Structure formats: structure tokens, C-alpha cells
Amino acid sequence: MRKIKICxxxxxxxxxxxxxxxxxxQQAYDFGITTWYLQxxxxxxxxxxxxxxLTREGYYADAEFSIGYVQIEGDGVVYDTGNSRLINRExxxxxxISDLQDGVFTLYYRSLSxxxxxxxxxVMDNFGQTxxxxxxxxxxx
Length: 141
Prior knowledge:
With 141 residues, the chain is mainly beta. Helix content is 15%, strand content 44%.
């Protein structure tokens, strides 16, 4: 009889602490940003294609990404496949500039000077995670 009471109390305590009607859904997954092979030298005024790969460790349907860039060295413009120009030091929604099929999107850079160019691209998700990628081009005069 005593064993039954102890087992009953133990079962009641276990049920109080083990039941949770909330489902934990992971929303923020780690991600990375890389590029396909890039040429090392560019001529002023000549566009260069920069093909990006956004890789995610998991998929959350409501994940949103933004991209921005900083021109560290040189002078130039970054634009998307529709010729919409990105603004230096400002973020824009990635879905506005690309359909992001299979995590791949393309931007273009055109140098406006005969100096070397260094760009830092920053990708941020809607959970505040950021990844940076620095790209350098030597000027070919």
C-alpha cells in the first residue's frame, strides 16, 4: 500500500513538471554568405558580376534578409539585375532586389575611379544576425 502511494505521488509530480503544451519552434537559423569566383582586376566603368550564395542551416518560412554595403576604398556603384542602385551604407530588403532562388542572387559593381576598390557587404536577417563579406578588386588601367 505504501509503495502504491509513493508511486502515485511520484507520477503526479512527474506529470506536473513534464507536460508542456507549448511547442518550441526554432526561427533563427545560422547562415553564411559567399560568392562565386570573382575576377581580381577591373577596368573603370566596366561592370563586374558578383554572384552571392546565401546558405542557411535551417529553413524558417518567415525569415527575411537585408543587404547593404560599405565602399571602403575606391569609388563605384552597386546595382541589382534590374539596374536599381543600392545606396552605400544603407540596408535594403533582399527580396526587393532578387527572387533569391535556391539562396543565389546577383549584384553588379562598376568602378568609377582608377583606384583599387574594396567593398564590404553585410547581410542581416530579421533576428539581428549579421554576416560580412569583404571583396577587393585591383584597378586595371
